[in-house]
Amino acid sequence: MTEVPRLPTSGGCRSEPILKQRGQREVFCGLTGIIWLHRKMQDAFFLVIGSRTCAHLLQSAAGVMIFAEPRFGTAILEETDLAGLADAQTELDKVVDQLLARRTDIKQLFLVGSCPSEVIKLDLSRAAERMTEKYAPSVRVLNFSGSGIETTFTQGEDACLASMVPVLPVCDERQLLLVGALPDVVEEQAVALLSAMGIQPIKVLPAPRSDTDLGIGTNTVFALTQPFLGDTHAALERRGARHLPAPFPFGEEGTTAWLRAIADEFDIDAETFERVTAAPRARARKAIAQASEALRGKSIFFFPDSQLEIPLARFLTRECGMEAIEVGAPFIHKGIVGPDLDMLAQGPTLSEGQDVDLQLDRCRTARPDLTVCGLGLANPLEADGLATKWAIELVFTPVHFYEQAGDLAGLFSRPLRRATLLKLEAAE
Left, alpha or beta for 208 (phi > 0: left; psi -120 to 50: alpha)? Predict the structure, then answer.
């Protein structure tokens, strides 16, 4: 098998200067995280306190039929609430009473703030405390913000998980905690690999049900599966848990490094590690080599959107042979993405935050072969003749660990193939 040559790691990008700009931003709403969280947490309900726009966003993003029974909904703030003519707290209590009376399967209720509820300073933390006293122990009520005023869309998950950490019970048992919502099939693959090495017990956050035996303590070590969980990372450390820094499990190399960090923590010998990972590593390398043929030697430009940008740039440059021109991220938390920065060869501009007009100017000047950006920028850039990849697809698609490595490369190669075909058709 021919392996794609690795780029040199000398130096890395951890200490490289970061371009920080603050101006107009182009981000998606943090309420989006509910779309994958409500599928993951089977006894939870997410009640957004927001406008009709919030409700339409969730309905259209989830693609839920009107006769379905989803685990999310919107308590609409009417004009009387926004004008202060009605007591929004009293109105919210009525909505929750009706919801819990009808849906007895709900064991966790999340009150989710939105832009409108934050503008009128609606205190959802007080509401959650009041409702917890009323409905405990049958229902646990928590709150977090899904507002897009100051955040990017993946921080909705981060805020949700961070709200859960303080109420988890104390656990003194030495355990591994995998943190971040993954599709069930991907999570099962990760747990199976770690279990085959002899690592036990393994817990996950978020757990599928609230009655899962999940606690946190000073003997808990945790590995993040998503790079956008900064608040959750801080909340776990406040509970005494210890983070295992590692590159994120994208591609063969990142997955192997992530697994090795955990294996080293639990004293797994090299022979066992090789026995468990050899076959899936070989499959991943083969799949990446086939899917990345269209990527080799191509340039890529990342707009800040999902916070996956740095680990993805590491994967695409080292395993797919691409050249990164700029890697923009909404936030760069070196305690989380530092290991990926160490493996990312020097060269690309690292940018944090956004002044979208200035970044668009840099992108149009660079003319990259592929641009990763939000939905709002894709059409204008395509009109300029630039091939684009929607960043949000990378969150909704299974892309972690060995068995998805080829699919991850394919997500980037398809837009390039499409652009090539369109040029050929135009030439004819």
Answer: alpha
Q: Provide the β-strand partners of residue 141.
A: 109
User: Which residues are registered as beta bridge partners of 388?
Assistant: 371
H/E element holding 145? strand 140-145
Distance, in Å, from the CA atom of 32 to the CA atom of 341, rounded to the nearest integer, reads: 27
Query: Can you tell me the distance from the alpha carbon of 304 to that of 56, in angstroms, rounded to the nearest whole number?
Result: 25
- The token pair that represents 375 in the structure block: 């939905």
- Name residue 109's beta-bridge partners: 45, 141
Give all domains of the chain, ordered by start, each with its CATH number: 18-26+284-427 (3.40.50.1980), 30-151 (3.40.50.1980), 175-280 (3.40.50.1980)
pLDDT score, position 68: 57
- Calpha distance 360→351 (Å, rounded): 13
- The alpha-helical segments, DSSP class H, found in 136-241 are 155-164, 184-196, 230-238
d(CA 155, CA 60) in angstroms, rounded, equals 20
Average pLDDT over the chain reads 89
> Which pair of tokens denotes residue 158?
């981060």
SS3 content of the chain, % helix, strand, coil (to 5): 45, 15, 35
Buried-state track 51-60, b at ≥16 Cβ within 10 A, e below 16: beebbebbbe
Separation CA 72–CA 49 (nearest Å) = 11
pLDDT tens-digit series, residues 255-296 = 999 999 999 999 999 999 999 999 999 999 999 999 999 999
pLDDT for the residue numbered 314: 97
Q: Return the half-sphere exposure (C-beta side, CA atoms, 13 A cut-off) of residue 250.
A: 30
Residue written as token pair 């060995």? 402
Rounded to whole angstroms, the Cα distance separating 120 from 115 reads: 9
pLDDT tens, position by position, 78-88:
765 555 545 77
What is the DSSP track for 321-372? Answer: --EEEEEEES---HHHHHHHHHHSPS-SEEEEEE-HHHHHHHHHHH--SEEE
Q: Which residues of the chain register pLDDT less than 50?
A: 1-9, 65, 85
Encoded tokens for 391: 């960043």
Tokens of 159: 């805020």
Q: Distance between CA atoms of 201 and 155, rounded to whole angstroms? A: 28
